[in-house]
Structure formats: structure tokens, C-alpha cells
């Protein structure tokens, strides 16, 4: 397991395809901010639309584009008229057995054909925290040949609504997150923060060590050894990629692991604290509350699965 895969598992990622939209304009679809723990995505199968976010330049989306808002920010999808002087019909919705379909085309070719869905993730997921506000890739690019077959399968399942389609679509939506992230990472000329650390083979080894052995009494010297560097070289290399210190990142990793244990196991808070390197339950609870805003016990009551 690589560090990115571990972070995806820690984020407890799952996907959901909510809508197939076959729409013509002029039309503006206002999307309010998503609830905490939800990211939003739009896949443009055909046609075009414009994404507008407050304080940002409009972004044109065309067939093949995938637009992903990791923190589910408010936005507006603007769809232009397919023909001059075209009037907008009322949007009709129906569930076809696989997804909800929204359309105002009356059998005509839509101005845009969209798949719209969500990615759900654990509170304060480290991976989501380090992503930019917008992730934008295209499944038509030669650099991401694996995306087009996935999207086309999602489209077919959403369209044909055969037996088991909802389960297949959910699984494909979950896979879409990782594939979109992989495609986006491959296009970045340089990366900063945790993503930059993961992209560096030697520094990434220290992150993997934190993730796999959080109970270790890690020191800078020990982390530098995992990266096969001296302490001074490790600190210089780490600082070149991240504004956060190694021990601050370690603390965040430990809290992310702890939040997963609190929601998915019946371990006592003291045992969870020990498993992530805290001998003092009080010290663990204080740090947890600093990051999540609530004590571990209350967090478990609110988010726990057990």
C-alpha cells in the first residue's frame, strides 16, 4: 500500500452519482455549499456549460471535462441556449431505476449532458485538506486513458438502468475519485505540502512510516532515518515542500487515524490514544479537540458507526 492509498482509506471515501442532467439554456443552476464531509463533482459528457464561483473567473467546461470541488463550495452552473431565441422549458425529473434524470429538452438534443454526484469523506480528512479548491481534469486526454472507459461505463449504467446498476454506479463513483486525483497529480509540474512530500520517494517514505506506525515515539532523527537522510538534510528537504513541520504533520496524521478508530471500532479512548502514540489520554483529548472542535467522546457520539 502506498501513502496515497492509505490516505484515501483514512478519508473513508465513498462516491455517489446523484443526477443525469440533459439540459438546455438559457438556464442557471445554483448549488449551495455542500454539507461538511461532502465534495461535489460534475462530468460533462456532451455539450458545454460555465461554472461560476464568487470571487473567481468563470470556468468554461466542455465535453470531456471533470470538475471537482473537494470542499463542496457554492457554485452556479450556467447553460447557454442551444439556438438563438430559444426559450427555456421547465425542468422535469424522474428516476429511471438507476439515477434521477433531469431534463428540459423534450426529446431534443440537450445543450449539456452531465453526470453530477458527490464524494463523501471523514471529517477533517487530511487528503481533502491538502487538495486545492478546484480539481479540473479531462477524461479525453491521452495522459489519462483510464478515465474515459470508467466514465463511459458510468454513463451506460446510468442510462440503461439494468439490474444492479445502482450498486455498480456507486462503486464506479468511488473509483472515479482516485482516478481523477491520479490524473490531476500527473498533470502538476510541481506539488507543495503533503502531496509534494508524497511525490518525493525519500520524503514519502517518512510519511508512510507515520501512517503505518503512528504509535512509535517519533523524533526528527527517526523520521530522517526513514527517509535515508541526515536530520539537517531531512528538515531542509521537508521545508522545501511544506510549510508545516514534520511533527505537526505527524500530529495531524495521528488525529486522522484516531478519528477513524473512534468511529469504526469500540476501543476505549485511552486505547485509541495509545494506538496513535499518546501515553496520556488527557493530552490526546486536548489535541483532538484542537483539531476537530469537540472532545473524542462527543465526536464518537456524533459520527460513530458503532
UniProtKB/TrEMBL annotation:
Pfam families: Cupin_6 (PF12852), HTH_18 (PF12833). Residues 201-302 form the HTH araC/xylS-type domain. CDD domains: cupin_YkgD-like_N. The keyword Transmembrane helix does not apply. Keywords: DNA-binding, Transcription, Transcription regulation. InterPro entries: AraC_lig, AraC_XylS_family_regulators, Homeodomain-like_sf, HTH_AraC, HTH_AraC-typ_CS, Tscrpt_reg_AraC-type_HTH. SUPFAM superfamilies: Homeodomain-like. It comes from the Bacteria. GO terms for molecular function: DNA-binding transcription factor activity; sequence-specific DNA binding. This is AraC family transcriptional regulator. It comes from Caballeronia ptereochthonis.
Amino acid at each position: 500500500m502506498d501513502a496515497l492509498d492509505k490516505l484515501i482509506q483514512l478519508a473513508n471515501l465513498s462516491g455517489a452519482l446523484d443526477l443525469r442532467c440533459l439540459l438546455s439554456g438559457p438556464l442557471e443552476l445554483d448549488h449551495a455549499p455542500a454539507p461538511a464531509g461532502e465534495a461535489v463533482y460534475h462530468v460533462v459528457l456532451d455539450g458545454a456549460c460555465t461554472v461560476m464561483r464568487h470571487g473567481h473567473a468563470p470556468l468554461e467546461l466542455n465535453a470531456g471535462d471533470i470538475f471537482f470541488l473537494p470542499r463542496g463550495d457554492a457554485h452556479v452552473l450556467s447553460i447557454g441556449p442551444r439556438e438563438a431565441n430559444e426559450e427555456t422549458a421547465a425542468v422535469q425529473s424522474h428516476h429511471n431505476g438507476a439515477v434521477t434524470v433531469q431534463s428540459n429538452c423534450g426529446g431534443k438534443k440537450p445543450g449539456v449532458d452531465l453526470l453530477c454526484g458527490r464524494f463523501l469523506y471523514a471529517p477533517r480528512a487530511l487528503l481533502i485538506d491538502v487538495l486545492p479548491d478546484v480539481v479540473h481534469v479531462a477524461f479525453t486526454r491521452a495522459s489519462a486513458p483510464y478515465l474515459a472507459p470508467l466514465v463511459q461505463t458510468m454513463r451506460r449504467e446510468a442510462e440503461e438502468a439494468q439490474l444492479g446498476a445502482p450498486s455498480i454506479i456507486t462503486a464506479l463513483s468511488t473509483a472515479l475519485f482516485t482516478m481523477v486525483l491520479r490524473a490531476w497529480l500527473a498533470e502538476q509540474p510541481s506539488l507543495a505540502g503533503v502531496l509534494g512530500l508524497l511525490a518525493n520517494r525519500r520524503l514519502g517514505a517518512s510519511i508512510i512510516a507515520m501512517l503505518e506506525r503512528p504509535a512509535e515515539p517519533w523524533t526528527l532523527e527517526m523520521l530522517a532515518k526513514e527517509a535515508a537522510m541526515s536530520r539537517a538534510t531531512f528538515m531542509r528537504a521537508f521545508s522545501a515542500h511544506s510549510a508545516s513541520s514534520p511533527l505537526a504533520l505527524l500530529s495531524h496524521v495521528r488525529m486522522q487515524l484516531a478519528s477513524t478508530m473512534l468511529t469504526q471500532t469500540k476501543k476505549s479512548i485511552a486505547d485509541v490514544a495509545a494506538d496513535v502514540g499518546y501515553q496520556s489520554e488527557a493530552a490526546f483529548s486536548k489535541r483532538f479537540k484542537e483539531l476537530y472542535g469537540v472532545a473524542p467522546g462527543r465526536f464518537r457520539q456524533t459520527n460513530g458507526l458503532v
